[in-house]
Structures are given as C-alpha cells and as structure tokens.
Amino acid sequence: MSQTPVIKVNNLDLTFETNDGPVNALSDINLSIDKGDFVSFIGPSGCGKTTLLRVLADLDEPTKGSVTVNGVSPSEARMSRAYGYVFQAAGLYPWRNIASNIKLPLEIMGYPKSDQEDRVSKVLELVELNGFEKKFPWQLSGGMQQRASIARALAFDADILLMDEPFGALDEIVRDHLNEQLLKLWKSTSKTICFVTHSIPEAVFLSTKIVVMSPRPGRIVDVIESDLSPNRPLEIRDSKEFIEISQRVREGLRTGHTDE
Amino acid sequence: MSKDANRFFPILSIVTLIVLFWYGFSVVLNAPWAYDQAKRQSITLTLPELVNKTWSQKRPKLPTPHQVASEMWDTTVNQKISSKRSLVFHAWITFSETMLGFIMGMGLGIALAIAIVHNRATALSVMPWIITSQTIPILALAPMIIVGLGSAGFSGLLPIAIISMYLSFFPVVVGMVKGLKSPEQLEIDQMKTWSATGPQVLLKLRLPKSMPYLFTSLKLAMAASLVGAIVGELPSGGGGGLGFRMLSGSTFGNTLQIWSGLFSAAILAAALIAIIGFLQKIVLNKMSLEP
Question: Which chain B residues are closer than 8 Å to A93 by Cβ?
C-alpha cells in the first residue's frame, strides 16, 4: 500500500528549559506512521517516548523540526479531534458514572444528546463493559477503569489512538487480557494506534512496528517492522518469530545504553 | 454506641468544667455587691448565704448559667415574636443580615477566585488588595460603611449585609482559588486533548473538583458573616438584632441581656454552620468526593 503517512516526523528536536539548564528530551527524531499501523514506543524512562507522544498530541511543542498528523500540524489535528488520548491513569471523574464519563468529551465537542447515548453503548460494547453504564469509577477495578478510559477515547470519531502506558499500573494477568482485547479492538476498528510502553512482550505482542528509543538525548535507535501474523493468540509469545523480535528489541535497548 | 459515648464524654467533661468555673466566678465577681448589701443591713454572711446571694442578683456582674438560661427562656418563649423584647425578633434580624451578607460574599468570593485563576494579571493586581482588605479592623471600617451608605440613601439590612460580605468573601476567595487549581496536570491535559474551551474546563472540571474546598470555606464565611452582622449593628442604632441587643444591654448595665444575646448568637452560628456541614456531607457523598 503506498499512501501518505498518517503521522510524519522530520528532524524533530525538543529541549526543555529547566532550573538545572536545558534538557535535550528528543533529538533528531524521524518517523513515519501509516494508516492502520499499531506502533509501540519502547525504551527506558527518560528516553522521551511519552514526550514524543505528547508532541503528536500537541501537548508539548517541538523546539525544531516538523510534525504532521493527518497532513496538518498537531495543533490543527487536535482542533479537528483527530486523535483520542489515553493517559497512564484512567482520569475518570468520581462524580460522574461510567456512561457520563464517556459522554464528557462528547458534551465538550457538542454531539447531540441522542447520538451520545448511542455512542456510549457502542464503545462500552467494544471494551466489554456493557452493563456498567450506571456504575461509578470507585465501583470498578483498575483494569475496568482503564477500559472505560479507552472507551472514552474511542467515543468520538478519531482515527488515531494515542496511548501512554495505559496498562502500566496493572498486574500482569489483567494486562495480558487487556492486550488481547486491545488487539481485537484495533482489528475491528482499523484505527492507527501509537502505544507507549516499557514492556518488551507487550510491545512485540501488539505492534506492527516497534520504535526502540534510548535516553540522554532521547532518540530512536531502531525501528522494527514486525511480520507476526495479525491473528495473535497469547501463545504466540512462545513462537520462534516472537522471540527473535524480542531479542532485536532487547539488543536495541542495550546499544542505546552502552552509548552513554 | 460506644463510639458515640467516646465522642460524647470529652465534650461533656469540658462543658461540666466550664459550668463549674462559671458558677465559681459568679460568686467571686458578684461577692462585693453582696457584701456591700449585707454591710448596709449590718449582717454578716455565711458562705452558703453568700453563694445563694451571688447567684440570684437582679443585676449581677456575671450572671450564672441558670440565670442566662431563664432570661433566654423568658425572652423567647414568653414574648411575642414581633416584640422588641423578643430574642427571636432580634435573632431573625441578625439572621437576615448574615444570610444576605453570606450570599453576597459567596458570590463575590467565587467570582474573584474564577477571575484570579483564569487571569494572571488579575491575580497579580487584585490579590494584594484582597489581603490588605482583611488587615483593616472591621470595627473601624463598619461605622464608615454605615454612614457612607446611609448618606447615599441605603439604610437597614443592606449596609450591614455589606459589612458581612466584606468579612465573608475572603475565606471563599482563598479556598476557591485553591479548589479551582486542584485539578491535576493530567486532567488539564486531558481537557486539552478534547480541545475544551476555558468555560468548559471551568464548568465540567474545575468547579466540581473544588466542591470540598468550597464547603470548608463556606463554614468559615458563615461564621465571619455573623460576626460582620453583629459588628455592623453596633453603629447602626435603632434597627435591632443581636448585636444591638448586646449593645443596649451594655449601655444599661444589663448583663443578663448581654449574655443571652451572646448565647443566641453562638447558637445561631452553630446552627448555620451545622446546616452547611450537613449539605457538605450530602453533596460530597453524592459526588464521591468524600475522602
């Protein structure tokens, strides 16, 4: 498929001014993401993977270089509601029930009332939370809260889903389950997903493309196109191909570190 | 049940202690007059007689709790509500002034807090004045406000309510600035990803999130508002109210009137603050914001 990429990053640099002097958070980032890609950003803390995601979402501004999302600047993309963003914490409002939490972005964006209801039941079905409309966040487990937060990001028609370590705070069993669900969801909605993680198995299991990053300055050390079949049961993690890709990711992370 | 007993016992013991001290001081403070009377009649008082006399004077220096209680009973239940001798009549006036001042103070406080949180220039220019306003003794300011507004044609409830407002908006500003700033960075970023407007962030995130701060501030504001109303009644003259009642008691050396006015004010304050506490519990519980 030859098409214009959904996300294009050229020679991006980002320096934060701090009290201890400038910190080079991202250096010379070049990246292109196609429609329907599932891209994982992996690296140790401080490698700038979250910062890169925040730049794509127009939450941080690059110092140098260019970024386009859907062919326009991140700020225009944000204004045109091009992406849904899932944060590390679910960020549900305790005074709103699950349905009403999912409606929140819809209210802000001015969707008609009847449409809001339809969308809520549709996305709750996608994350398998139907029946929980009237529950309040404190009545849900951590994994369910994070699923509700994903549902909220899916509720409006964004083609891009940006996810910043959404399962980072969850235990491994819940995490495996959510990874399977996310994969299913990605296949059924054909969205483009950018996914920040520091777990190698998670990155390899989910992605069509793995971006390996390294700190000080934050940069890309390897981009791995995964040729794992789109149908991935959890057992695929024991397969030869899976292990090979994991090794390549690990090597990338190691080279990044010895460079210091 | 034992939990209630645990809460009740310390309170009860302190109250008992206060009442004992009070009776003791009544004896000490009222003794000179009792001795004086006895001397005129050329009799000497035994201790029980002295105690009995000090506790039942018509115009004691320090009336006893039971005298205050009976005076309060007398001026609430045994008086027509519309009578100038009724404590209910005066309490109602003070209550009206307090509530009007409280509502205006709450409105002003919230409005200022919203302006301060949204606009750095406002924060820098207005905040120092807000703090300065509270360093001026209200006793000095109250007569000026009453006289000033009086010459502009405002008298009665409004000038006093304005003094109440002057005292009560401050805790609301301070609390609400903190409350409106209480959303975390993540919640603000989240709003930004949805391209929410300033008013939307205010309405859907900042205001709901500030509710715990608001109620705490409102309790302080209510107490301040009542103090403002009483202070405001002093230079106003004629109108009535608990402050006026205490002032007239003081003018005529009627300590019973002062003390019963004082207690009415305390009961009024406790009741008003308890109502806010009750609302706080219901609202925060409903919003799952109770810690």
Answer: 205, 208
